[in-house]
């Protein structure tokens, strides 16, 4: 066990080169590491199906997207 400290003291440049080589190899390995274990991150989506006779689709769409600020209008000539 005394040989490692003796070598480090007598050959400091060699020890520095070994440390830099190990650090460089570790950095390169880290950069090439894959991210296969991360889950897929997709945006959440909402699907709405509205069934109402006598209403225009544009009115129902506006009602759903504005939070109910504008009620859907019945088609012309039909009463709800």
Task: Walk me through what this model shows.
- There is one protein chain.
- By secondary structure, the protein is mainly alpha-helical.
- It has 2 domains: 1-33; 48-80, no CATH class.
- 46% of the residues lie in helices and 0% in strands.
- It has 3 helices and no strands.
- The termini are far apart.
- The model has no long low-confidence stretch (mean pLDDT 76).
Please estimate the helix content: 40-55%
Derived from helix and strand composition plus strand pairing, the structural class reads mainly alpha
Low-confidence stretches: none
Q: How many helical elements?
A: 3
Task: Offer a few descriptive terms.
2 domains; 80 residues; mainly alpha; rod-shaped; 3 helices
Quickly describe the structure.
By secondary structure, the protein is mainly α. It contains 3 helices and no strands.
Helices, strands, pairings?
Blueprint: H1 3-10, H2 12-31, H3 57-65
């Amino acid at each position: 066990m005394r040989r490692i400290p003796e070598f480090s003291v007598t050959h400091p440049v060699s020890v520095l080169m070994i440390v830099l080589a190990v650090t460089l190899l570790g950095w390169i390995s880290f950069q090439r590491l894959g991210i296969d274990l991360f889950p897929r991150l997709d945006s959440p989506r909402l699907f709405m199906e509205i069934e109402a006779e006598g209403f225009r689709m544009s009115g129902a769409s506006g009602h759903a997207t504005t939070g109910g600020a504008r009620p859907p209008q019945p088609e012309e000539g039909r009463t709800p």
